[in-house]
Amino acid sequence: NETDAVTSQKYLQQIDSKPTDLFGIAEGKNVVFITLESTQGFVINQKVNGEEVTPFLNDLIKDSFYFNQIYDQTAQGKTSDAEFIVDTGLYPLASGSAFVRRPENTYLSLQHILKQNNDYYAATFHGNDRTFWNRDQMYEALGYDTYFSKKDYNVTEENSINYGIKDIPFFNQSVDHLEELSEPYYAKFLTLTNHFPFLLEEEDTLIDEADTEVGVVNRYVTTVRYLDKSIETFFEKLKEKGMYEDTVFILVGDHYGISKKYEQGLSELLEEQPNIVNHMNYQQVPLIIHVPGQEGQTIETQGGQIDIRPTLLHLLGIETDGLYSFGRNLFTRDNDHPVIFRDGSFISEDYIYKDNVCYGKENGQEVDNQYCEPDSEIVRQELELSDNIIFGDLLRFLVE
Ligand code: GP9
Ligand code: MN
């Protein structure tokens, strides 16, 4: 009800945004947002059999804001949760996908905000069926003007694998649609080839499989390598067409590719011990924000996918106060605020809290639960407020 709406409003209003020199550096630019399917942070600058897994991304981060401590906050909604978090600034649901369960809500989405501020046109591109994850319905609620899906692509048996059209033809064909959009635009691209169980044809294999005891991990490096190539192809094409300069690019992994079940293969690959500290590190996803002409910088601030939206808005020169989001600008985020996971676990400046056990963050030693209690309280509060907003459809009272 409306009282709950006011409670949420009060909490969210204390999330301050602080000024920085970067405010507005990308004002008015087109935005190209790319989700890197199943891409975990460890692939960046990682070599397998002496070869880089992501040579293009490794180069790109040298001229980008590269955030190397960003955590996957998705739950059962997988890709759709990653989309939900970025677009709404809310946490995903504890079970199921908000895309499927709450498409009729009022949302103050990133797309709405951009439309209101600079008349951005919002489009989304994905090679799978329109209705997957209920995207057709949810994208309307989020204010997308156009949704290019499978039916808008020339999809053949030759150019498809696993869930659909391969990433290279996907980007190639997308450019033709992108060219037609009115500017400035916000364009989201969901890649697909690097999806479990990581299948790839010989002709697309650019790197040898890894050599661990876990086939999933071995194949994963080849599909990540292919994804890297597809991004390179896309950038080249945009440069050729003069569509690169005036665009800010955001690339982010949507969630893990190697689930816990296969993690021992990852430990083998990286020659690391299977322990809580490394397990948490594997939950990191790469976040790259590339503004052409802007000098590169690696930012070690701890954060989550929920922090992407205010960070982008900051660069676009849009104030984030009063936008009902749980995210914090990564350029100013306080490390003492925990990164919150949907199951109530978290990672803070000094602790990891997982499955009701509190660990020291640096050494992974179990410590008394009392050390995690204060942050745990914040975690419960944020998740509850976010759930209230979603289940109570509270933004209908707050957003005109
Ligand atoms: C399918 C794509 C991948 O359209 O979103 O699915 P997911 O990663 O959510 O399993
Ligand atoms: Mn996914």
Automatic annotation (TrEMBL):
Give the annotated active site: 79
Q: Where is the Sulfatase N-terminal domain?
A: 29-318
Keywords, sorted A to Z: Cell membrane, Manganese, Membrane, Metal-binding, Transmembrane, Transmembrane helix
Q: Where does Mn(2+) bind?
A: 37, 79, 254-255
Q: Where does substrate bind?
A: 195
Q: How does it sit in the membrane?
A: Multi-pass membrane protein
Cellular component terms (Gene Ontology): plasma membrane
Instruction: From the Swiss-Prot or TrEMBL record, state where the protein is found.
Output: Cell membrane
Q: Please state the protein's primary subcellular location.
A: membrane
Q: Which GO terms describe its molecular function?
A: metal ion binding
Family statement drawn from the similarity comment of this UniProt entry? Belongs to the LTA synthase family.
This one is known as: Lipoteichoic acid synthase 2
Q: Which source organism does the UniProt entry give?
A: Oceanobacillus picturae
- Full-sequence portion shown in this chain: 218 to 617 of 617
